[in-house]
Design a protein that fits this description.
The structure is a single chain. The chain is of the alpha+beta class. The chain contains ten helices and eight strands. The chain has helices at about 1-40, 45-55, 75-85, 120-135, 155-180, 180-195, 210-225, 255-260, 275-280, 285-300; strands at about 60-65, 100-105, 115-120, 145-150, 200-205, 205-210, 310-315, 325-334. The strands form three sheets. It has a four-stranded antiparallel sheet, with helices on one face. A two-stranded antiparallel sheet has the order 5-6. A hairpin with a 2-residue loop joins strand 5 and strand 6. The longest helix is centred in the first third of the chain and has 38 residues, at about 1-40. The chain is extended and about 100 Å long. It starts with a helix and ends with a strand.
Length: about 325
């Protein structure tokens, strides 16, 4: 008996020590977790969304299930379960044997509340939803108004509502554009006048809102990135014998004329200050001279310096939009 009491006392001491150790470890982890939340404020909503998403995985939302008028809750639940099982009878073994249901929202006249179907596992919910979609695509009949969807988190529902509102707004806008041509051309003009570059930009200690000065700031930054040092192309010291490159390119006047024709409707201005439409209008006059220039360029191995000019377009990569140094340049040859 004395040995039993001693053993019981020792077990009590061990349990207390383990409990204190676990409590200390839990508090340490809690402190680290709190520090992480303070350091990364976006982490908390992300974890909350992930947790809520996990809770939604075993759930399905079912619409179009007629409600029972019985005042008894158990009778209404039994009626809803039976109706759902009968509606999904064509899915064979995909319907789980055990599931819970909850009517969502308050009861209103002439409004059928959706039913949340809570399955035992996320796999059961996934298999049922997959079977329902497959049956629907294959043309199997379901009761009128009956449909099923996955349960969504509050953030997913908010984003989905925002997408529906945006779609409705776009549909109304397109209908207005079709019925009123003046609105259409106003819409096109606004789209063309849109610029991703802010009205006010800065580079180092200089800030400007003037378009010419803004262009000069980008030019100054791009010039500082690229070197203008001339490359030494003299290969004589390398001991490489000169040789002619094989040239089997055959350009005809018809090729040049065809590409000039493709410029029709292109109003973009190149580095030479000429638009594609302007060059298109002159295609009958300049096709032969251009063909001559291209032919001589290939025969003599000389690439005209004017064709090396390019248009530089700044594209924002990261950071503040108004900071010129946070953009990289896209070069488009003339």
């Amino acid at each position: 008996m004395a040995e039993f009491k001693t053993l019981k006392l020792e077990m009590s001491i061990i349990n207390k020590a383990l409990s204190d150790s676990l409590t200390l470890k839990f508090n340490e982890l809690k402190s680290k977790f709190q520090k992480g939340l303070n350091k990364y404020p976006n982490l908390k909503p992300l974890l909350q969304e992930n947790f809520e998403h996990g809770r939604c995985l075993p759930n399905l939302i079912i619409y179009g299930v007629p409600e029972s008028s019985s005042p008894d809750t158990s009778v209404r639940i039994k009626h809803d379960k039976l109706t759902i099982s009968e509606s999904l009878s064509s899915l064979e073994n995909a319907v789980p044997e055990k599931f819970k249901i909850i009517r969502l929202g308050r009861s209103r006249a002439e409004f059928i509340r959706p039913v949340k179907m809570i399955c035992e596992s996320k796999d059961s919910a996934f298999n049922l939803f997959s079977a329902y979609n497959s049956a629907k695509l294959s043309g199997k009949p379901f009761p009128k108004g009956f449909r099923m969807s996955r349960d969504r988190t509050s953030l997913q529902r908010k984003l989905l509502c925002s997408c529906y509102e945006d779609l409705e707004r776009r549909v109304k806008s397109e209908s207005s554009l079709n019925s009123n041509p003046a609105d259409y051309w106003k819409f096109v003009k606004n789209k063309r006048s849109f610029s991703a570059i802010p009205k006010e930009v800065s580079y180092r200690e200089t800030t400007s809102t003037n378009e010419r000065e803004v262009a000069n700031l980008f030019s100054k930054y791009i010039s500082s990135v690229f070197s203008d040092n001339q490359l030494n192309l003299d290969t004589s010291s390398l001991g490489i014998k000169s040789f002619d490159l094989p040239n089997n390119i055959n350009i005809t006047v018809e090729n040049v004329y065809k590409h000039l024709t493709d410029l029709h409707g292109n109003w973009s201005i190149g580095p030479d200050g000429l638009s594609g439409e302007y060059i298109y209008q002159l295609k009958n006059i300049i096709a032969f001279p251009l063909w001559t220039l291209f032919k001589r360029s290939l025969e003599e191995g000389i690439f005209s310096s004017i064709l090396k000019f390019s248009s530089i377009t700044p594209v924002h990569k990261s950071g503040e939009l108004s900071n010129v140094s946070r953009a990289f340049s896209i070069s488009q040859l003339s």
